[in-house]
Amino acid sequence: MAIAPDTEKKTLLERADAIAPIVAEELDEAERERRLTDRAFEAMKDEGLLGVWVPESLGGLESSPREGFELFESVARIHGSAAWNLWIWSTGAALSSSSSEESIAESYEDGPVSAVGAGGIFPFNPAVAVEGGFRVTGRWPFCSGSSHAKWVGGGIMVMENGRPRMTPMGIPEMRFVTFPREAAEIIDTWHVVGLRATSSNDVAVEDAFAPEYRTSVFGAGTAPGKHFQGPLYRFPVMGILGAPIGIIATGIAQRAIDEFITLAKTKTARTSQARISDNTAIRNDVAKAHAAVQSARSWLYEMVDETWEAVLRGDDVSLEQRRDLSLAGTNATRSAAYATDLVHTAAGGTSVFQTSPIERCFRDIHAATQHAGTSPRNFDTLGGMLFGELPDNPLLFA
User: Fold this and answer.
1) Potential cystine with 26: which of 37, 271, 309, 333 (Cβ 3.0-4.6 Å)?
2) Is residue 219 within 8 Å of 98, Cβ to Cβ?
3) Pick from 80, 166, 151: nearest CA to 358
4) Which residues pair with 153 in a beta bridge?
5) Is the pLDDT reported for residue 394 higher than 80?
6) pTM, entire model
């Protein structure tokens, strides 16, 4: 399914500009309903944004990593949840690159919109090997985008005779499995503080049959299918599944800073008629916030570009580059939270009301910091790598 002719020549940022008014208009309803509205979803579909990292041969845009990051950051400045869902829906191609031709044909029958999925890699739920596939029982939390997903699923560990089936490398065989949405239960668990409109609910199956062709392996050593031969599908997995959180966070933080600057130009201190923008302490804080966001996003983009250039040259992405790409994403998330906290505090009582965009940014940024992909625990692993230790996270090798 091809992208509509009138959108073919647009850059991703131009597409982001096209959906911006609709995302903004639908924001309040999305927050109330804890899901993106159908109108916002349709706008994304019409602009081709459901296929950001989907191969061109399957109707997608096959955009570069940097172009995707710029899109997510731009949308995050409008609505963090909208950017988050766009990112999640864009990761499907990375997880399905080694899927069978039968599965790809089924998933992309109507182009990228028919392949929209929601799932979680962890936990690896047990999957009993049976003739033609697997019987799966389990539950996956944090399945963002479940409200509009056509497919759901998650990580599985293959079991035989009551034990994990081992690979030739001597480790348990782990796969990613997908089910049609109607074959699984979406459990309404997403009652949260921030990123409210991401519909990141739990997904569960009970003794559900998954044909083997709907499962895939991913990570180091896996062979991509014929649609996934482009350089995009050699970009490190953590650069797709983790680092974008950092750029979504900087987009959210920049919105908070912009809103605060507008507020500070007119708001006066309770004890005087002076504008709060004239206060030296507040000027210091907004400068610190600006510096934290700009420096963090610059390093993240630098690592995305450096890694992408290595991929384009046909080089193996070094472990040091993988470390710094992941570290830059984690750092950007923490720096963005620090910046948002500064302006949230500086805004005073104004920032506690739900009518304030700063309040929403504060909630969203602190929900983003809780994701394992940019958790502060990453500093331990990545710091160990600086001392020459191998990481304990297998996704850093993928």
Assistant:
1) 37
2) no
3) 80
4) 119, 178
5) no
6) 0.95
